[in-house]
């Protein structure tokens, strides 16, 4: 994930479950729901569910007894203990009763299998759409709505919003052949739904306290016949000690629709840039970024921007430290390649300075696979 490719990121605080988490659907008191949970080695249970009408998660915490029954509490604080939901295995599904804190009487629960998990932890199983079976069921009830059209660098961009999460992304509406726009827009829709799911996942970690925040702004940076480049800036608080933020840019090769890597634009290593990674997408030279690319960025920015490298408040932001330059956070501008920086939490105000641009004239001296096709 870039930091999510944070477009999902999922916010650093999501529960890390170790056991398999099958996904179940059914009814609680006649209302359609989708549930998933994991049973840990010590018999404790963690999970979540949502009502199909409302889509937002309710956290589940509890235990499994010797007979296999689950006794679960909803949105419990760390010092709370309460049973709101009891589930017993029956045939290929589950039956039980729900009695929330304000319920006047118990409501029947019946669940059947929706999707079998093959991985550990809930939300881990992803399909071609990048969504877990649980989140796929959630977004199936959601619809995007048009949110206006704007012209950017000569291209018409049609904006679409998902009303519950308020996640807003654009589609390309002019400037490319129809088949090309269809391919690009399919990729953009993919990332928008992942962002919608990330927003709901963030909310789940808050356990019903209403304190979460997940906002995202997609900022077009450069559109040309060859590339579509944008920032994806996300601010989020998903429980824990502090809110956080990041920019997870997306750079699309128009010809293929694939998400580009930095070596497509800038290459400082040995051999050809198209041979930089193996079949699994890993850099063949594990030391390339830390030993070659990041030191070069720090040295180059030191020459280009000596005053800014000292930080706005003296040496508060140490941009001379090669490790802060983030090879996974970059986007394209008409003037060149913007490179991001990443600092520890106490210095996060230093992240992604607006001045860290590599001019095209310099980039072309270290060309990647697509550099000749760029501005």
Task: Give a quick precis of the structure.
This protein has 375 residues and is of the alpha+beta class.
3D structure, described in words:
- The longest helix has 27 residues.
- The chain has four helices and 18 strands.
- Among the domains are: about 100 residues, Lipocalin, CATH 2.40.128; about 120 residues, no CATH class.
- The chain is elongated, with a radius of gyration of 24 Å.
- It has about 375 residues and is α+β, with helices and mostly antiparallel strands.
- It has an eight-stranded antiparallel beta barrel.
- A hairpin with a 6-residue loop joins β13 and β14.
- It comes from Chromobacterium sinusclupearum.
- Keywords: Signal.
- This is DUF3298 domain-containing protein.
Strand composition percent: 25-35%
Estimated helix fraction: 10-25%
Number of helical segments? 4
Globally, the shape reads elongated
Task: Kindly list the characteristics that best describe this protein.
disordered N terminus; 4 helices; DUF3298 domain-containing protein; 4-stranded antiparallel beta sheet; alpha+beta; Lipocalin
Give the SSE map.
Layout: E1 23-28, E2 31-39, E3 44-51, E4 57-64, E5 70-74, E6 85-90, E7 93-98, E8 107-115, H1 133-139, E9 145-152, E10 155-162, E11 167-172, H2 178-204, E12 213-223, E13 227-237, E14 244-247, E15 250-253, H3 288-304, E16 325-333, E17 336-341, E18 357-359, H4 360-363
Antiparallel strand pairs: 1-2, 1-8, 2-3, 3-4, 4-5, 5-6, 6-7, 7-8, 9-10, 10-11, 12-13, 13-14, 13-15, 16-17, 17-18
């Amino acid at each position: 994930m870039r930091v999510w490719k944070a477009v999902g990121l999922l916010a650093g605080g999501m529960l890390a479950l170790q056991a398999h988490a099958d996904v179940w659907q059914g009814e609680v008191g006649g209302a359609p729901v989708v549930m998933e949970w994991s049973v840990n080695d010590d018999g404790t249970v963690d999970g979540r569910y949502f009502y199909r009408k409302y889509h937002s998660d309710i956290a589940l915490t509890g235990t499994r007894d010797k007979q296999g029954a689950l006794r679960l509490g909803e949105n419990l604080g760390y010092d709370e203990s309460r049973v709101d939901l009891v589930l017993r295995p029956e045939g290929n599904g589950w039956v039980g009763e729900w009695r929330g804190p304000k319920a006047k009487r118990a409501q029947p629960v019946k669940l059947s299998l929706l999707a079998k998990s093959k991985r550990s932890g809930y939300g881990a199983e992803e399909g071609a759409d990048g969504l877990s079976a649980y989140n796929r069921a959630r977004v199936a009830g959601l619809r995007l709505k048009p949110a206006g059209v704007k012209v950017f660098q000569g291209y018409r961009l049609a904006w679409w919003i998902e009303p519950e999460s308020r996640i807003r992304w654009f589609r390309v509406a002019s400037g490319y052949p129809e088949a090309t726009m269809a391919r690009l827009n399919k990729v953009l829709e993919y990332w928008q739904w992942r962002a919608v799911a990330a927003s709901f996942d963030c909310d789940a970690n808050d356990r019903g306290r209403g304190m979460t925040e997940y906002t995202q702004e997609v900022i077009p940076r450069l559109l040309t016949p060859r590339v579509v480049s944008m920032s994806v800036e996300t601010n989020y608080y998903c429980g824990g000690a502090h809110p956080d933020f990041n920019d997870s840019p997306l750079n699309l090769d128009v010809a293929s629709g694939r998400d580009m890597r930095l070596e497509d634009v800038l290459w400082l290593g040995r051999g050809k840039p198209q041979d930089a990674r193996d079949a699994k997408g890993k850099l063949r030279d594990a030391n390339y970024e830390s030993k070659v690319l990041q030191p070069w960025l720090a040295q180059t920015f030191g020459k280009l921007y000596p005053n800014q490298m000292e930080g706005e408040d003296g040496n508060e932001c140490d941009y001379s430290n090669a490790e802060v330059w983030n090879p996974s956070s970059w986007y394209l501008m008409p003037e060149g390649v913007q490179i991001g920086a990443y600092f520890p939490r106490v210095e996060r105000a230093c992240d992604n300075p607006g001045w860290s641009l590599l001019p095209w004239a310099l980039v072309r001296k270290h060309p990647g696979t697509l550099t000749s096709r760029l501005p």
